[in-house]
Design a protein that fits this description.
220 residues; Rossmann fold; eight-stranded mixed β-sheet; 7 helices
């Protein structure tokens, strides 16, 4: 795997990213950003989707290619994967996609503006299977409440995991956060072969694993 950072511009003296940036680093989560801070000015408002934990970026790139009318932000904590995915985005010439190297929990807590996101994708998050590590799981009540805050009315939180115990934890967590309604999982890819098409999903299909999914809609 290539781990060198893709060519990009660092933040300027005013603390904002340049329009040509793909990999966004050295972020501050002390205050909320605007969509324009991330994607630059546009003549009309565009929907925004966020993928948490992009890994090698397979889903993010496929989805961004399908929907050039949507802005996509991928958040990845592991720098090697963030750099790798940003390099793929740059090579693909995708102008509607950014990769943020940061802790998603902190970003959602403060930096994402209220009701600014159409969809949040969380696919195959680390299950932290040992009981003593359960507190490290991303999908905790506080994070889900932050997701609800940033979603537009009618926006969706989409989750897929192969880990049944974690899925039961997710179901309990979602049941304790008000303001969501369950909805059928949407078709996101042009192919029927995969649910979301991440590298993990392709690997787990070969291993014969079962998948568990949840789709939540923010009530208006």
């Amino acid at each position: 795997m290539r781990t060198n950072s893709p060519k990009h511009l660092r933040r300027g003296k005013d603390g904002k990213w340049e329009p040509g940036d793909v990999l966004l680093e050295d972020v501050s989560t002390d205050s909320a950003w605007s969509r324009q801070d991330i994607f630059g000015p546009s003549e009309q408002a565009r929907p925004m989707e966020i993928e948490v934990g992009v890994g090698k970026g397979t889903f993010l790139l496929a989805r961004a290619k399908q929907r050039p009318d949507v802005d996509f932000l991928g958040i990845e904590y592991a720098k090697a994967y963030a750099c790798y995915t940003a390099d793929r985005v740059r090579r693909a010439g995708l102008t509607n996609t950014k990769v943020l190297h940061a802790d998603a929990d902190a970003v959602f807590r403060v930096a994402i503006p209220d009701e600014s996101v159409f969809r949040v994708h969380v696919y195959f998050p680390d299950p932290w299977p040992k009981r003593k590590h359960h507190r490290r799981r991303l999908l905790q009540p506080a994070f889900v409440r932050d997701v609800r805050r940033v979603l537009q009315p009618g926006g969706q939180l989409l989750i897929v995991t192969d880990h049944r115990d974690y899925f039961e934890h997710i179901r309990r967590t979602l049941a304790n956060v008000e303001g969501f309604a369950q909805t059928p999982f949407p078709k996101l890819l042009d192919t029927d072969e995969h649910v979301v098409g991440t590298n993990f999903e392709k690997k787990y299909i070969e291993e014969g694993r079962a998948f568990y999914r949840a789709a939540l809609l923010k009530r208006i």
